[in-house]
């Protein structure tokens, strides 16, 4: 193969004979288990915070709890662009095995942690591997796709992801209550070892012999930008005021890192996130819609849980059960979409329908009051799941079919990268919005003090909070309307993509 030739997919003639059906089926099962492992680990820790604090640091542990989540998220997000480039340079199988092994090492260290400081540091190690679990797995699934298989792995991956989002806190609570909090990390080990062994045997993917230089400076700048953005959204309005010196300084550094990163990507021989990808209309649209989906997910899940606990008095564990209708909606529609995709239905149809359902569900949530029936809330969450279930997997598929074959890795991890950054921006935007609207109606009353109020004061504070939450839901719905308009702009060529890109041909939206 010439040095500059495109990476063939497993479905191309140059990739050799297809793997036996049983081996290919095992490979797909491994990918789904890996996605489930990734999603569960992002949600499972929240259910064990109390026993972790009680065991490791009962005095100051509560103050450090946010870093249990942030350390994982920062490490995982910062390395996403690098993972994509590594896949394109060295092959997805090697990167997949390395990511899983790193994740398992981090899990074992987390389970053995003897202090909060150790646990936070080991969560960062776990996040380094966790950043590749879902994104690299999506690359693997794209390369496993056979010619003519337009259902792809993206839809099924979205289904597994939706289910894991709902059951993660429940599994974490069960493990913490019956086996101890350390088992929320140790449970990853047997599952991960199965994934490693199965992947080593079953994954037969194309790869390149490491041609090209890795742009470490670009990867460092991308990590600095992502870390800075996540820290600004995490600290702003919480640890520090938005106009405080730490937040403004960090924000300035983040903007500078972004500028340097873009300049580096324009001049590097092997950029980690090639700017040429943004010249492809389908990729440009897919990244933008995925960022809006990340914001919409934040505006729905986080603030529905807050609404249930603050306004309705639902306990945290019981509130997590309300995510089950959402997961059911994602799973059911994901199965239907996967079937229809195999019959040739256009991806743009599902993207438009998904954005429309999500917008409608969020706008309906925006009509919620202090006495809205809880079954109505469950129905609205189910509709929201129907919407997101059509968006998550289809967006991955659209991007993968549009990307040049030799840039499949960076395009796929780019989808995840923009969703994560969108979620961070959504958290900052909606959190500030909620605090401002509630603060204007209840000056001097902290949100955490609502539960301690009584009588008329409590009723008034609840109404003020519900109004603030409704503003958040309507704003998130408006963002999904914008996602719908963007989805309508997808060119018909994206709907007709049929794996030519997988075979090394031009991607959707390419010219020439």
From TrEMBL:
<feature type="transmembrane region" description="Helical">
    <location>
        <begin position="244"/>
        <end position="262"/>
    </location>
</feature>
<dbReference type="InterPro" id="IPR011701">
    <property type="entry name" value="MFS"/>
</dbReference>
<feature type="transmembrane region" description="Helical">
    <location>
        <begin position="181"/>
        <end position="202"/>
    </location>
</feature>
<dbReference type="Pfam" id="PF07690">
    <property type="entry name" value="MFS_1"/>
</dbReference>
<feature type="transmembrane region" description="Helical">
    <location>
        <begin position="120"/>
        <end position="144"/>
    </location>
</feature>
<dbReference type="InterPro" id="IPR020846">
    <property type="entry name" value="MFS_dom"/>
</dbReference>
<feature type="domain" description="Major facilitator superfamily (MFS) profile">
    <location>
        <begin position="27"/>
        <end position="495"/>
    </location>
</feature>
<protein>
    <recommendedName>
        <fullName>Major facilitator superfamily (MFS) profile domain-containing protein</fullName>
    </recommendedName>
</protein>
<feature type="transmembrane region" description="Helical">
    <location>
        <begin position="65"/>
        <end position="83"/>
    </location>
</feature>
<feature type="transmembrane region" description="Helical">
    <location>
        <begin position="283"/>
        <end position="308"/>
    </location>
</feature>
<dbReference type="InterPro" id="IPR036259">
    <property type="entry name" value="MFS_trans_sf"/>
</dbReference>
<feature type="transmembrane region" description="Helical">
    <location>
        <begin position="29"/>
        <end position="53"/>
    </location>
</feature>
<feature type="transmembrane region" description="Helical">
    <location>
        <begin position="465"/>
        <end position="488"/>
    </location>
</feature>
<feature type="transmembrane region" description="Helical">
    <location>
        <begin position="375"/>
        <end position="396"/>
    </location>
</feature>
<feature type="transmembrane region" description="Helical">
    <location>
        <begin position="314"/>
        <end position="337"/>
    </location>
</feature>
<feature type="transmembrane region" description="Helical">
    <location>
        <begin position="95"/>
        <end position="114"/>
    </location>
</feature>
<feature type="transmembrane region" description="Helical">
    <location>
        <begin position="417"/>
        <end position="438"/>
    </location>
</feature>
<dbReference type="GO" id="GO:0005886">
    <property type="term" value="C:plasma membrane"/>
</dbReference>
<keyword id="KW-0812">Transmembrane</keyword>
<keyword id="KW-0472">Membrane</keyword>
<keyword id="KW-1133">Transmembrane helix</keyword>
<dbReference type="GO" id="GO:0022857">
    <property type="term" value="F:transmembrane transporter activity"/>
</dbReference>
<feature type="transmembrane region" description="Helical">
    <location>
        <begin position="214"/>
        <end position="232"/>
    </location>
</feature>
<feature type="transmembrane region" description="Helical">
    <location>
        <begin position="349"/>
        <end position="369"/>
    </location>
</feature>
<feature type="transmembrane region" description="Helical">
    <location>
        <begin position="156"/>
        <end position="175"/>
    </location>
</feature>
């Amino acid at each position: 193969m010439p040095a500059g030739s495109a990476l063939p997919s497993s479905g191309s003639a140059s990739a050799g004979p297809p793997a036996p059906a049983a081996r290919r089926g095992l490979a797909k099962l491994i990918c789904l288990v890996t996605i489930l492992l990734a999603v569960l680990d992002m949600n499972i820790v929240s259910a064990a915070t109390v026993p972790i604090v009680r065991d490791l640091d009962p005095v100051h542990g509560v103050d450090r709890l946010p870093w249990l989540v942030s350390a994982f998220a920062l490490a995982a997000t910062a390395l996403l662009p690098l993972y994509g480039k590594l896949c394109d340079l060295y092959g997805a199988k090697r990167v997949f095995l390395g990511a899983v092994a790193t994740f398992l090492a981090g899990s074992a260290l987390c389970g053995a942690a003897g202090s909060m400081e150790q646990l936070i540091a080991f969560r960062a190690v776990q996040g380094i591997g966790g950043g590749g679990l879902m994104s690299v797995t999506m690359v693997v699934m794209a390369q496993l796709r056979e010619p003519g298989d337009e259902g792809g792995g993206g839809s099924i991956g979205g289904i597994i992801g939706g289910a894991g989002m709902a059951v993660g806190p429940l599994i974490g609570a069960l493990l913490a209550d019956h086996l101890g909090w350390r088992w929320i990390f140790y449970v990853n080990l047997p599952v991960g070892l199965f994934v490693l062994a199965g992947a080593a045997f079953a994954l037969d993917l194309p790869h390149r012999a490491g041609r090209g230089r890795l742009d470490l400076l670009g990867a460092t700048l991308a990590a600095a930008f992502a870390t800075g953005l996540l820290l600004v959204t995490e600290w702003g309005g919480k640890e520090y005021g938005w106009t405080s010196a730490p937040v403004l300084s960090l924000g300035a550094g983040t903007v500078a890192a972004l500028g340097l990163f873009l300049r580096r990507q324009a001049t590097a021989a092997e950029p980690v996130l090639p700017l040429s990808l943004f010249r492809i209309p389908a990729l440009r649209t897919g990244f933008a819609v995925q960022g809006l989906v990340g914001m919409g997910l934040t505006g729905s899940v986080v603030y529905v849980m807050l609404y249930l606990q603050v306004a309705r008095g639902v306990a945290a564990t019981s509130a997590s059960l309300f995510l089950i209708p959402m997961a059911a909606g994602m799973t059911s529609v994901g199965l239907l979409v996967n079937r229809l995709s195999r019959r040739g239905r256009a991806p743009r149809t599902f993207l438009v329908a998904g954005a429309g359902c999500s917008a409608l569900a969020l706008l309906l949530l925006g009509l919620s009051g202090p006495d809205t029936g809880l079954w109505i809330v469950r129905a609205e969450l189910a509709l929201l799941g129907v919407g997101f279930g059509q968006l998550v997997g289809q967006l991955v598929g659209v991007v993968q079919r549009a990307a040049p074959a030799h840039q499949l890795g960076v395009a796929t991890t780019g989808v995840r990268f923009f969703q994560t950054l969108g979620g961070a921006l959504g958290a900052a935007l909606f959190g500030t919005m909620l605090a401002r609207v509630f603060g204007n109606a209840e000056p001097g009353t902290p949100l955490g003090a609502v539960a301690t109020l009584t009588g008329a004061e409590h009723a008034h504070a609840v109404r003020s909070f519900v109004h603030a939450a409704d503003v958040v839901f309507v704003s998130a719905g408006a963002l999904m309307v914008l996602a719908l308009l963007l989805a309508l702009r997808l060119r018909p060529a994206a709907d007709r993509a049929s794996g030519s890109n997988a075979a090394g041909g031009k991607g959707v939206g390419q010219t020439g």
